[in-house]
Amino acid sequence: MEFIAIVIAIVAFIFARKASNRSLELSARMAQLEASLAGGARPATLPAADAPIAPPIVPDTAASETETTEKAPSTPPPLPPAGSRYRETVDGALPGTPATPAQAGPGFEERIGFEERLGFEERLGTRWVVWVGGLTLALGGVFLVKYSIEAGLLGPEVRVLLGGLFALGLLAVGEFARRKESLLPIAALPKANIPAILTAAGTAVAFATVYASYALYGFLSPPIAFVLLGAVALGTLAAALLHGRALAGLGVVGAFVTPVLVSSDKPDYWALYIYIAIVTAAAFGLARIRLWRWLAVTTIAFGALWMLFDIVRPDTLGPHAFDIIVSFALAALLVVAGFMFGPPADQGRVEPVSSISLGVFLFGAAVLVLINNHADPAMIVFTLLVAATFAIAWRAESATAAIGAAAVLVFAVFAEWAIRANPDLAVVPGGAMPGIGTRADDGSIGMHLITAAGFGVAFGAAGFLAQGRSIGAIVPVIWAAAGVFTPLALLIALYARIAHLDRSIPFAIIAIAVAAAFAAATELLTRREARPGQMISTALFATGTLAALALAFTFALEKGWLTIALALMSLGTAWISMKRPIPFLRSLAAILAGIVVLRVGYEPRIAGNDLGTTPIFNWLLLGYGIPAASFWLGSIFLRRRGDDGPLRSVEAAAILFAVLLAFTQIRHYINNGDIYRTSSSLIEVGLQVCVALAMAIGLERLRIRTGSVIHNIGALLLTWFAGLAILFGLFFIANPLIWRIEIAGAFFNPLILGYAIPAILALLLSYAVAGRRAAAYANTIAAGALVLALAYITLQIRHLYHGPYLNSFRTFDAEQYTYSVAWLVFGVILLGIGLLLPSQRARLASAVMIAITILKVFLIDMSNLTGAYRAFSFIGLGLVLVAIGWLYQRILFRQTTTPPAPGSTTA
């Protein structure tokens, strides 16, 4: 009751100060009106109480101006305008006293000039020494009490009496010094406020004396101790109004530090936190009256430290709960701007101190729940404070940010509850495992389920109902973010706790219901008239709809479906962005695509060990194929409204998943389901090269239609990958000429996949880029196709002569002759193709092949072949060269030569 009386006294004092300030303001206005009438001006009407006062109109003569200036009474300035921020005032000045040089007069300006000229010695002698001295006095009194206790010099009664006398002496000297200074007509220099410092030291000693009398010696009963502590707190409040910041700072710090300096071996937590509550009330009240932001923040910081003091002890639940509740209530009453007795608030603005003051003590309630193993009393305290935060933030927009803190803390509490050991998992056939079972003081599952349901509904409903209530954009966005995040986060936490992350149809149904609610909210907000923050809030509810649907898929289906659900969610977001042009949705589609990429990076097998060995029709087809299709379709939707970063991200994800689908399926098939096996067979490398070249051809065609930079870069990267795989894979790592690699089958063998098909695809790619990229780029690809074709012909001939293994060092004469004939025939075929199409590139390839054959015949066949093989090699080459010359003269020359004009003669 005494504590309530103290709070009521503080509130009454605040109202009295408001009435006094109002009276001073009205008196100032009346004096200003009288000055105007004395100057010869008569206003038509009296101004309203809240209307600004116009400057007095004076006659346009120097004499009248001088006379008016001399006779016009000095009036105090009007009070500062109301605002949500704490206003700073001059040290030691009451509200309404001069706060600027223009208001204070020349003397104030002179003092400021002297202040700027002060050197180190002046500051040290006039200020710092006094400040340190005041702090030393306070600490000296406390340490004197400690010394008397340790040395046993004086009895408890004498110690307390001396401490009280010392405090009264300091207070009396401080008040005497203040009154004496107020009588001095001239302030010689801006010295430190000695009266304020002496009074602050006396206040700290008084706090320590009363607290020691109650907690250490038991001289005072709880009611008397509460009254005395409240009296000291109110005395500090009143003294700080007179003495300014020096007393406020030292007094509040001393009051909070006192329980540490004057301690006991057997602390009484109830007495401690009742004392902290009284000090907090006094400090918050002073901060409110003087509008000192720094004092409010300091009080919150000290309150948070004491809130966490010894909170791990299981027997301190009651005192800590009392401290958290009282501190939260005091912050709501005196600190939160625009709510109850707090400072005035600006509409649509979130005030940091107001939100932090609630969030800090909400954090303490959450810690209380975790430390006490989710005991029901702790959960009740936490729930009540969250509900109170709702009520406060709903009325005072300055504290809206505390709703975001409440949402995060609610999730933290239930996430920790989900992680801790589940009772079902702690039971084995022989009984509960020792040390794993639940504690006796654990909270009940039923209470957690009811509380979670209440939190989810409350946050979701408030997030929707708060739309359109504020003129500021940040306020509805915070409500919407908390309203979307909290139900989804709680759903995940409960699913982990109850369903053990396994398949659960009930949770899937709940997720679908949440998605329906978010979808309805999205549609209703879309149809409303535009208000501040509504577009972002609508995007948040749309995101919540897709997230809830993704969770429904995850809850209802087996492992691996989370990847699919997130990919479909990205597709849905892209589709919604086309129907509802909300910019954030495009970015959200890209973010979801990035999450899917990270998901497969963590587990490329999608379903883990459940992947299986079935070729093609396995989890890889679903886990990579459906996301690839979703991203491709989503990019089409996003492209309809422009080419930007989100579109390019989704396009890149589509290409990546298409490539990963093909490559992982190849590895899965080649390695019998083990995609992590270290292997690089000719078939695997050949298939990967074929896939890379085929996709590069497709992207080259696609980029012509879309003009997408991602499709352009993707085509280049795939081409470079194919080139490196051909160079290092087909011609080195998996080359059957170098390594003992079995080539089974006479004609249908791995050489077709490794060299023949890549040669055809490289040729097609060279035609796809011809005329659209640099000529050197297209010619390089064409040269690669020619090299692959020549390699296939050579390896196939060697396979016919040597069987399944080609890495023998022996070469037969017939084999060497066959190489020459095959290369020559290949060159002739290329020439025929070049003449029939016609194609200069094919004819140039033919010339290259024939030149290579000529070099082989003269450099290799001449030295290695013997007998008829050498003769037939040269004869065949000669006949072919003559035939080629005849073809060029009779066919190519005739096609390219202009016929002579009629009547002309030829030589």
Describe the structure.
The structure is a single chain. The protein is mainly α. Among the domains are: about 20-75, no CATH class; about 110-290, no CATH class; about 810-895, no CATH class. It has 30 helices and two strands. The chain has a two-stranded antiparallel ribbon. Strand 1 (about 425-430) and strand 2 (about 430) form a beta hairpin. Helix 13 packs antiparallel against helix 14 and helix 14 packs antiparallel against helix 15. It is elongated. The chain starts with a helix and ends in an 11-residue tail after the last helix.
Provide a quick synopsis of the model.
Residues 92-107 have a biased composition (Low complexity). The chain has 907 residues and is mainly alpha-helical. Among the domains are: 20-77, no CATH class; 111-290, no CATH class; 811-897, no CATH class.
